[in-house]
Amino acid sequence: MPQSDILSVENLHKSYGKGNAKSVVVDNLNFSLRRGECFGLLGPNGAGKTTTLRLCLGLTAPDSGRIILAGQSIPANARQARLRVGVVPQADNLDPDFTVSENLLVFGRYFGIPDTVISARIPALLEFANLTAKKNAGIAELSGGMKRRLMLARALVNDPDLIFMDEPTTGLDPQARHMIWQRLKALVSQGKTILLTTHFMDEAERLCDRLAVIDHGKMIAEGSPRSLIARHIESEVVEVYGEGARIWGDNLGRHQSVRVEISGETVFCYTNDAQQLLTSLHMTSDVRFVHRPANLEDLFLKLTGREIRD
Questions:
Q1: Is the pTM of this model over 0.70?
Q2: Mean pLDDT within 171-198
């Protein structure tokens, strides 16, 4: 593992069941995290993201492969490695019997940190999470956004080098999401490393220096958001909707060299030169349209498909 890598995953494999019922969840996965970057792990439901995080933390044993986390072999030395790691899980698991400050204090004790040290850290953690005014509040008094910010503050109580964040902004309103984004950017600027899973493609595009897209446990793309978009997607997208969209899209397929996808009542047109499309649309009365640059969501849908995953 290079000196700059805080996490290295090589040929990781995990399956469940036996015989015909055997299901491969993580299939020969390889990636690494450099210190001081935000790395995104993207994929549809059931792609293997959460299992990969559990394997990296030593909470699930792999069938084969090699994991080095914070200089420690996983799962053999997972306990030592986790001392240098913070975790923000998908679901809130704050203790409702304690106040905001007490949640931080009690959690810090799991790392063997003296109460005096934790107590000295709490004011800065509360300020970071914009929760100073709520330090004596009960968990039931907090909004969803406040709880997620407290989860983030709690993950920092041991001053970790690496933070695992599993869908940290799910269920939050736009204001709360933006606040979390600001806090995550601040952590990276301070030299922390973040491993992020998210279903919000705008979140990944804003935050991640690099990312990997996995599906059915396999790595299908890796790189910076902009480089992946440039590599896999045409530069411009025209979304067409309205009563005449499908008819217009069918005619387009016969006359234009444009990649077309239809989802519901919307026609998605991918092209490197949208001028002809736009001219045609301006002359069509029963459609509406949006012209925009290609983004990470376009990449994700092209690589993993538009079908719903459960």
A1: yes
A2: 93
